[in-house]
Structures are given as structure tokens and as C-alpha cells.
Amino acid sequence: MIGENIQYLRKRKSITQEALAEQIGVSRQTIAKWESGESAPDLEMSGKLSQALDVTLDDLANAPLYQAPPEAPPLKGKHMFGLVTVGDKGQIVIPVQARRVFHINPGDQLMVLGDEDRGIALMDAKFFMQVAEVMRNGGK
After folding, report:
1. How far apart are CA 45 and CA 2, in angstroms?
2. pTM for the full predicted model
């Protein structure tokens, strides 16, 4: 993913592999290897890339920036953040764009709600508890 992001971001800024390589102090071949996925930049080079490409390290490494936007304009307040994969122990990684839109930060707690016919939903645990308290008090 990082290679595709490097290539996408470089092209978005309309700079060549040579120009990017010169800017961060590596060879053009190194940029080509990163973009093709043959190798990956170390942390120091990733930091230089994120500065040169004007993105955060998190976006450079994790966000699927290279994906084309949806054809139809999204409805206001409605989002499709892409697919996630469930890990061995049931864990998922919430896409960075979703974390930003919904202000989800490390350490935040989310309530997992489920409906066997409609699916799973995540909700801020504090908000869920506030709603539950209002319901428990008869709407007061």
C-alpha cells in the first residue's frame, strides 16, 4: 500500500521520481523500488517522504490514497470508507479517514451494536451511555 501511495502522491504533486529522489536524498531507482513494492522506505525516509509529499506518516503508510473517488457525489453526512479485514482475534483497523471524520483517537472506547438482519454498528461509548441514561430515566 505504501508504494501505491507514494506513486499516487508524487503524481498528484506532478513531480518526477528523479525530483522526489533528489528532494529526499535517495536515487531514482530507490523511489521506483518503493513504488513497485520491491522494497519499502525505513522510518527516516518515510518521514522525509511524508514532508515532501505533504501528508502525515499515518496517511502515507495506511490510507488507501491511491483509490479513485466514488463516481457519484456522496450524500451529505454519508460515507463509505472502504473495506476492512477482520484479524485472527476479531480485530479490525478503522480507516484513517473514518477516524478523522468521527474524531476517533487512540484510547477511545466504542460500543459495538448488532442487528442480525442489518449488521454491526460502532458508536462512541460515552454517547451510548448518555442515551441509555436518558432512556432509563424515562426521557428526562
Report:
1. 12
2. 0.48
